[in-house]
Amino acid sequence: SWRILEFAVPVSLSDCLDSGSYHGPRWRMEPGDLFIPIDSIDEEATLTCDAKGIPPPQYRWSLNGTLINLGLDHRRRLSGGNLIIRSLDHYQDVGMYQCMAYNTVGAILSRRASLQFAYLDHFKVHTRSAVSVREGQGVVLLCGTPTSSGDLTYAWVFNEYPYFVQQDNRRFVSQETGNLYIAKVEPSDVGNYTCVVMNSITKGKVHSSPTSLILRTDGKI
């Protein structure tokens, strides 16, 4: 006679499913870094997150490594996988966000995306000392960028607006520091220079106090 032996073999859910029909989440779109103008706190911010999968994925978000409990949060909500934040708060909302998409087959974590507020303070009001240089020498005029957050661009006004310094083989404006470099100073370079800083996100613009450039005539270096 034959005896039938039964074996209990553990299998995962994915082994039971047709791999051609069911699969874990795959990213369509991951969140990107956000810079929000500081004067736009009454508007909404949206961090995008979208994945495909069968069954359709569900989503969770974390802020600085801590899961956001959307059931108890009246300012944050999901729209699809996107996280929408209203009544923005500089202290509660700044940080690193991460999205998780999951279904019964698997789960994936997105890249981390930062949310920051962009701003540009005014220059400190004070008289800048004149800079003296001998003809033919080089000189650096310091911008002294005020406190800021966000992408900045720099320019210099020569004597009065709207006469901006034109960059050439002698004059260069650093877009890293805002400083103005002038090589082989000529008498025509003498005048007042004002640093102009612009925030590309807030569209704000601030001007420094003028710096006078004068030629030395005492013969000293």
From TrEMBL:
GO terms for molecular function: cell-cell adhesion mediator activity. InterPro entries: Ig-like_dom (IPR007110), Ig-like_dom_sf (IPR036179), Ig-like_fold (IPR013783), Ig_sub (IPR003599), Ig_sub2 (IPR003598). Coiled coil: none annotated. GO terms for biological process: axon guidance; brain development. GO terms for cellular component: axon; plasma membrane. It is found in: Cell membrane. Residues 25-116, 121-212 form the Ig-like domain. Its main location: membrane. This is Contactin-3-like. It comes from Myripristis murdjan (pinecone soldierfish).
